[in-house]
Every structure is written in structure tokens, then in C-alpha cells.
Amino acid sequence: MSLLQILRIIALAVACYVTRCSCYQLADSYNNKLRPNVGGPPVEVRVGLYIESLGAIKESTMDFRLTMYFREKWNDPRLAFNKTYERIYGADAGNIFWTPDLFFLYEKSGHRHDLTVPNIVTTIQPDGTVFRSSRISLTSACYMDLQRFPFDRQRCSLNIMSYSLSTKHMKLVTNDDDVETEEKLIIPSFVLKSIRTTNEDLVYSTAGNFSLVKVIFTFQRQMQSFLLTVYIPSILLVTVAWLSFCIDAQAAPARVSLGITTVLTITTMTSGIQESLPVVTYAKAIDVWLAACLIFVFTALIEYALANYLLILNKKRKEAIEAAEASRKSSTTSRDSPPIKHGLSDEQLSRYRTQYAVPPKGQSTTNGSDEETQTAQIVVTPWTADRVDCLARHIYPAAFTLFNLIYWPVCIWMTPDYTDQ
């Protein structure tokens, strides 16, 4: 080991000894139970944050997690010392000198980091100004309004106040410049729009007024994942339900299975979304969308039930008229033979023939006899399964398009902006 290295080690040891002695000399007559300026004006504590990371923002538990460097700065005249020393540093100074008893209101869990050493440092300047910084991770409650989910913006606040000292003894102050963030801050599913601070007084009827610092984060939810996992698949399901109108009404297995599959898929998708969200008493924007899609696909299933009913009804009516016409013809050729039982009275037969029968081409209904009417060509009722399917093919997409023209502007353009509030 060279002589220069030995001299450096000795100088460092002397500096550490002088610093430690100075610290304990200051603490000899110091009472860390009493705040600065005791009996005088309240001590002013400036609070600042450096946000290292913002973790998951959970709607299910309504909270958010962050890791930060929590900074406190105040002046304690009792700690002023000889200005021949620039500063005094000590990680254990918090156990020797008075420190603010601050805590985080609405905190659910948290801890101070101690890997590989306790992540806390206290700096005392010659004029008695104390600066303390500690690295903390915590989870704080955040009430969320989910009415416009997933088009929503959320405001979550970090509330800092004294546990025992009212505004008569301590005043907390901060401003927007005291809060800094990592340059490339990544938040899952959200974008940080703004950070602002407020200084307030929290009033307790029994304990008095307490100074409160509030750091308000405004988050904008990212829509990409919901477009890919909810909106586009549900639009495709509605489209599949619409395509069922192009299938022949007589293909019952194909149309029924298609309708039931789309209904069950939308229902499963809705259940999956609800499991990840808290139970609330109001409808969310995504609930309105999924409910509308469920109504559309269920309507397609109901439409086939109507088409199938008309198909069966028209078939029975056609068979009844044909049987009645055959009975009439046989009765004219053989008066003595018993009539064929067709289940229709003369009044019903006359009505059905008038409604469902037209004369052949080239014949007039004014001068036609009963025999000509009986041999008329049988046609189906105007409300047939094919006609209902044809109407549904036009009305269904028009109604869904109208719903989209209302839904998307309301959800996107009418979202409240919390940035300036």
C-alpha cells in the first residue's frame, strides 16, 4: 500500500470522526420530543416526491401502488452549527433529532426499503435546515367512478398529513414543482395525464385542524386492449348473428345452433368482464355495449323463431286449403260420396281462399265462377319466413349502425376532463 493511499484513509477516518462528534455535540442538549420553535409559530415542513414507478391501478380493489422517494424539509434552529463544516450527513439522525410524524391517509399497505442498507438519508445544513429522503413503496385507496369504463379518466390522490400535530404546531406545504417523476414512467393500462398538488386543512371536530398535502394523479385509460378483446369480437358476433338471416329458414339446426352459440359467447364475455370489476350500483359504458350486443344476437334468435312459426303456419294453411279444394272438386263429381274432412268451416274456407288464392293469369275475378276460384293458384301469405328474413337483413344492420353512431360519440367526446379541475 502506498503512502498516498494511507494518508487518504487517515483523512477519511478523521473526517468521519469529526462529523460524528459534531452530530453528537449538537445532540447533547437536544430534546427530540419537542418540535422546532416550540411555543412559537408552527414549524413549516415542505413535502416533495420523486415518483420512481407507478404500479397496477386495480379497479377490483380500487387502489393504486407506487414507489417513490419521499422528501421532507424543515428548519430546526437548534441544529445550527459552526459554518466551518459544510454539512452533516447521517442515516441515523432521524433517531437523534426531531422529525415530522407524517403518515399517508387512506394507505392500505406500505414499507420503507432496506436493501442492501436502510434507504433513508438525513442531511443537516449549517443554518439548521434538515432534509430527509426515504424510499417507500405503498398501496393507497383510490375511489374510481366507472360509469364510462373503459373510456374513463381516473383521479387518484396521495394524502399526507401529521398524525399528532395540528396546524397550531406544524404546517405542511408543497407545490407542483416539488413532485417529480421518472422520465419514462410506464403504467399498465393507463397513461399519466397530469400531476398537481393542493394544500388543505382537514377538520376534526374533536382533535382540531390538521394540515394536509394532497398529490393528485390523473390517469387516462388505454383502450387498445379492450378494442381487441371486447369490442371487435362482439362486433363480429353481431355480424355472425346477422349472417344467420341469409340461411334458409328450413335449415333449423344451422340457425338455432348459430343463434345459441352467439348468445352464449356474449354472455360468457360479459361474465368475464364483470369478474374483474367491483360490484357497483350503476351501469358502466362497457355494460351498455355488451347488453346491446346481447339484445341484438338474442333478437336474431327470436327472429328465427318467428320465421319458423310463419313457415309452419303457412304450410298448414296451404295444406288445409288444398284439402278443402280437393273436397270441393270431389263433391261436384260425386254428390253421393261423403265430403273429405279438412277441418275448416265454409266461412273459414271462404276467408282463406279470398286471402291466399289468386286467379290464374288471364282470368278475371269479377266474372269467375266458384269453380274457377277453387282451381286458382295457391299462394303463400304476405308475411312469410323469407320476407321476415329479408326485412331483418336490412333492419338489423341499420339498427346496429345507429346504436354505434350514438354510443361512440357519447363515450369518447363526453368523457369529463379532470386535468384542469
TrEMBL record:
<feature type="transmembrane region" description="Helical">
    <location>
        <begin position="254"/>
        <end position="273"/>
    </location>
</feature>
<keyword id="KW-0325">Glycoprotein</keyword>
<feature type="transmembrane region" description="Helical">
    <location>
        <begin position="395"/>
        <end position="415"/>
    </location>
</feature>
<dbReference type="InterPro" id="IPR038050">
    <property type="entry name" value="Neuro_actylchol_rec"/>
</dbReference>
<keyword id="KW-0813">Transport</keyword>
<dbReference type="GO" id="GO:1902476">
    <property type="term" value="P:chloride transmembrane transport"/>
</dbReference>
<keyword id="KW-1003">Cell membrane</keyword>
<dbReference type="InterPro" id="IPR018000">
    <property type="entry name" value="Neurotransmitter_ion_chnl_CS"/>
</dbReference>
<keyword id="KW-0812">Transmembrane</keyword>
<dbReference type="InterPro" id="IPR006202">
    <property type="entry name" value="Neur_chan_lig-bd"/>
</dbReference>
<dbReference type="InterPro" id="IPR005437">
    <property type="entry name" value="GABRG-1/4"/>
</dbReference>
<keyword id="KW-0770">Synapse</keyword>
<dbReference type="Pfam" id="PF02932">
    <property type="entry name" value="Neur_chan_memb"/>
</dbReference>
<keyword id="KW-0406">Ion transport</keyword>
<dbReference type="InterPro" id="IPR006028">
    <property type="entry name" value="GABAA/Glycine_rcpt"/>
</dbReference>
<feature type="transmembrane region" description="Helical">
    <location>
        <begin position="288"/>
        <end position="311"/>
    </location>
</feature>
<keyword id="KW-0407">Ion channel</keyword>
<dbReference type="InterPro" id="IPR036719">
    <property type="entry name" value="Neuro-gated_channel_TM_sf"/>
</dbReference>
<dbReference type="GO" id="GO:0045211">
    <property type="term" value="C:postsynaptic membrane"/>
</dbReference>
<dbReference type="InterPro" id="IPR036734">
    <property type="entry name" value="Neur_chan_lig-bd_sf"/>
</dbReference>
<keyword id="KW-0628">Postsynaptic cell membrane</keyword>
<comment type="similarity">
    <text>Belongs to the ligand-gated ion channel (TC 1.A.9) family.</text>
</comment>
<dbReference type="GO" id="GO:0007214">
    <property type="term" value="P:gamma-aminobutyric acid signaling pathway"/>
</dbReference>
<feature type="domain" description="Neurotransmitter-gated ion-channel ligand-binding">
    <location>
        <begin position="25"/>
        <end position="223"/>
    </location>
</feature>
<dbReference type="GO" id="GO:0005231">
    <property type="term" value="F:excitatory extracellular ligand-gated monoatomic ion channel activity"/>
</dbReference>
<keyword id="KW-0472">Membrane</keyword>
<feature type="region of interest" description="Disordered">
    <location>
        <begin position="325"/>
        <end position="344"/>
    </location>
</feature>
<dbReference type="InterPro" id="IPR006029">
    <property type="entry name" value="Neurotrans-gated_channel_TM"/>
</dbReference>
<protein>
    <submittedName>
        <fullName>Uncharacterized protein</fullName>
    </submittedName>
</protein>
<dbReference type="Pfam" id="PF02931">
    <property type="entry name" value="Neur_chan_LBD"/>
</dbReference>
<keyword id="KW-1133">Transmembrane helix</keyword>
<feature type="domain" description="Neurotransmitter-gated ion-channel transmembrane">
    <location>
        <begin position="230"/>
        <end position="319"/>
    </location>
</feature>
<keyword id="KW-0732">Signal</keyword>
<keyword id="KW-1015">Disulfide bond</keyword>
<dbReference type="InterPro" id="IPR006201">
    <property type="entry name" value="Neur_channel"/>
</dbReference>
<feature type="transmembrane region" description="Helical">
    <location>
        <begin position="226"/>
        <end position="247"/>
    </location>
</feature>
<dbReference type="GO" id="GO:0004890">
    <property type="term" value="F:GABA-A receptor activity"/>
</dbReference>
<feature type="signal peptide">
    <location>
        <begin position="1"/>
        <end position="23"/>
    </location>
</feature>
